[in-house]
Amino acid sequence: MTVARGVDLLSVAQHLGTAYGAFNVIQLEHAEGIIAGAEAIELPVIIQISQNAVQYHGGLAAIGTATLIMARNSELPIVVHLDHADDVDLIEEALDLGFKSVMYDGSRLPWEENLARTAAIAKLCHNAGASVEAELGEVGGKDGAHAPGVRTDPGQAAEFVAETLVDSLAVAVGTSHAMADRSAVVDLELIAALEAAVPVPLVLHGSSGVDDAGLQAAVRAGIRKVNIGTRLNQVLTEAVREQLAADPTLSDPRKYLGPGRAAIAVEVARLLGLLAKPG
Ligand SMILES: [Zn+2]
């Protein structure tokens, strides 16, 4: 199977009134677990590597290529997506490697500058046969950039999409990155207003902070891509901690990362199922 374009998958979700999960890769075990979970429930999935994770590994090529190969080896349509990138060189590298989906994050820039840069990146991605996600109205919580109460304005969002020609839009509707509990309240009325105003699929970031019912309500209101990172790290780490606590002599990483990877697969299958049948 070839690696899918982000927009193709999201158009299907738009048509069906469902959403696809987008899960963050940090270790190879994340990518393996995410694909195993998607295969278990036989649903397409988006695997994303953030610019932050690239910095952790000291480069994109190794982790990115490995993830692309895993995606190509699957029978399912799988999107490999570069998440929260603002480094143009990194975006170009991702496109060269074969990524078919990129998020350009200019949400901290002033309006005019975000518009101009996002439009230029959209052109770059489209020329490479990839689709592009942008963000308007910063989703807070990352690197101290927490901005409580920030909301995306539907009129501005429509203008932004028309001017930049992005394929999907991440919106600020009450979620925040890296939440350890699932207590965020999503502004469903705003999602519905954005869905009516904006022709492209909407993306929810910071979804680890939303409970199952909240996620499904967000999908019913118009969210088509649900980004989940922290939640997978919680289930991975819980499983690892359990193994290490049970046997203090354990040293083979396969003995604790294996159960961590299996826990990721179970949670991914569960979440994809919820999003595919939002009720
Ligand atoms: Zn995000």
In order across it, which strands form the biggest sheet?
1-2-3-4-5-6-7-8
- List unreliable stretches of 5+ residues: 141-146
Q: Separation of termini?
A: 30 Å
Largest sheet report: 8 strands, parallel, barrel
Into which percent range does the helicity of residues fall? 40-55%
Run of helices and strands: HEHEHHEHEHEHEHEHEHH
Summing up helix and strand content along with how strands pair, one would put the structural category as alpha/beta
Number of strand elements: 8
Describe the global form. globular
Strand content: 15-25%
Radius of gyration: 18 Å
Number of helices: 11
Question: How much is the average pLDDT?
Answer: 93
Bound molecules: zinc ion
Keywords:
alpha/beta, eight-stranded parallel beta barrel, globular, 11 helices, binds zinc ion, single chain, 279 residues
Describe the structure in your own words.
This protein has 279 residues and is α/β, with parallel strands linked by helices. Helices cover 52% and strands 15% of the residues. It is built from 11 helices and 8 strands. An 8-stranded parallel beta barrel has the order 1-2-3-4-5-6-7-8, surrounded by 11 helices. The longest helix is centred in the C-terminal third of the chain and has 24 residues, at 253-276. The radius of gyration is 18 Å and the shape is globular. The two termini are 30 Å apart. Residues 141-146 have low confidence and may be disordered. The site of zinc ion has 5 residues, from loops.
